[in-house]
Amino acid sequence: MRILLTTGFLAGLLALSAFAADVTGKWVAEMPGRGGQTHEVTFNLKADGSALTGTVSGPRGDTDITDGKIDGDQISFAQVLDFNGNQVKILYKGTLAGDQLTLTRSHEGGQGGGHGRWGHGGGSQQFTAKRAS
């Protein structure tokens, strides 16, 4: 009886974690940019177990995501951009809650750098993406 209850409990936890990690789909966000202006960015994400793949679509076109991971309702991935021959790795970390994905974006190393794309000169930015229908 104890084994049956334990097995049932573990199966329930697995089902719950699979539901919590349902990030597959199209997500749209108004991302902060230079001078307080925003621009629309679309995230097309695909979950496969604990792996996350997809693209980020914005003013610079589509970019594949790399290093995508899912852990319960937590996700993380990277985007590598090229600025005149200089590669910049942007890191995203987020929390899924229903049809909302709260994301934090930062440069690798946590610095804003000199590209002027981080609003007030550096650090990280938080924004919310919503599941598109």
Structural account:
By secondary structure, the protein is mainly β. The protein has a single domain (2-131), classed as Quinohemoprotein amine dehydrogenase alpha subunit, domain 2 (Lipocalin), CATH 2.40.128.120. Helix content is 14%, strand content 56%. The chain contains one helix and eight strands. The chain has an eight-stranded antiparallel barrel. A hairpin with a 2-residue loop joins strand 2 (38-48) and strand 3 (51-58). The longest helix is centred in the N-terminal third of the chain and has 19 residues, at 2-20. The model is unreliable at 15-20 and 110-121 (pLDDT under 50).
Short structural description:
The chain has 133 residues and is mostly beta strands. It has one helix at 2-20, and strands at residues 25-32, 38-48, 51-58, 61-71, 74-83, 86-97, 100-107, 125-131.
Strand order of the largest sheet: 1-2-3-4-5-6-7-8
| Number of domain modules | 1
- Mean of residue pLDDT? 82
Low-pLDDT segments: 15-20, 110-121
Topology:
Blueprint: H1 2-20, E1 25-32, E2 38-48, E3 51-58, E4 61-71, E5 74-83, E6 86-97, E7 100-107, E8 125-131
Antiparallel strand pairs: 1-2, 1-8, 2-3, 3-4, 4-5, 5-6, 6-7, 7-8
Which descriptors would you attach to this protein?
globular, mainly beta, 133 residues, 1 helix, Lipocalin, 8-stranded antiparallel beta barrel
